[in-house]
Design brief:
Length: 345
Amino acid sequence: AVILALETSCDETSAAVVAGGRQVLSNIISSQVEVHRKFGGVVPEVASRKHLELLNQVVAEALGAAGLGFKDLDAVAVTYGPGLVGALLVGVSAAKAIAYGLDLPLVGVNHLEGHIYANFLVDPALDFPLLCLVVSGGHTDLVLVKGHGSFQVVGRTRDDAAGEAFDKAARTLGLGYPGGPLIDRLSRQGNPAAVNLPRAYLEEGSFDFSFSGLKSALINWLHRAGRLGGDVNKADLAASFQKAVVDVLVDKTLAAARENGVTTILLAGGVAANACLRAELARRAEEECRRVIIPPPVLCTDNAAMVACAAYYRFLRGAFAPLTLNAVPDLKLGEDRYEGSFVRK
Ligand code: ATP
Ligand code: MG
Ligand code: FE
């Protein structure tokens, strides 16, 4: 099956064509990061307007790069939540128009399910159960994947998401926006053991996360350094912050894998592009003889290929969406919410 997927949940306008759930024929990603940079974050209304301006061109490019036309498609898929409602609506409306106009089945995809399925683009033959660490701008979830479309969240953040923590730390350090990639790059020149920052493990046996204390500790450290008038080595501070986040993420992921008897670990979401997290998770999982799948960075940050991949498995089980599909900004992993009706799997 050849699937065209659209992704407009935040500030990436993306369209991809994927064949058989694994062959990425095209994956066009138009990032609006330059537009939002001057505001220091994504402005929802601006994002929606930009999606509207860009989407038709991005779809045309995706089809062109795949060497296909609308007539070659077997289904059209779209992210319908979670995300910014106005941004989601642009993709959802376009996908419904294409599905209606061409009489194609419509597949509604959960954005986080999309992030997780980036791993099936890397290896479609993964055996369940799997454990996926989803670390993104809005989420930090440890997800037990029991089968296609079957998810159990065993841990989640109680305050900031990992990506949010990176972005706030970067702002505190005056590095700019978006913060994750900047901290990643600067950390390479820093010493991760230079500054002792707290790691929040919460109660014994908990797989939940908390990053707000770390954020405060960083701010307090900077204030104290400012009062004392000493030199602040930003690279050391960035590396120490990054290591504190990564240590907790990796410790809890491995603990959850042991607890649930899972041998294959997946990594997903924008923060999965982080070099330190990728290296540490791979190194420490190997020590325990666990396999780790880590998608290439371009499939970790928002993109439509991951949405097409998730859609393929929905397509196979006939999980289609009605043409009344609406954007659901607070959609949860493992639920389908189609206009008025609520279906939990
Ligand atoms: P969600 O997926 O939760 O809806 P989102 O789609 O906005 O949120 P993503 O695009 O998946 O989030 O990820 C963006 C986040 O990833 C940002 O917070 C960004 O700073 C972070 N990020 C991207 N690259 C890196 C990196 N190399 N190191 C650390 N963080 C990164
Ligand atoms: Mg983004
Ligand atoms: Fe995302």
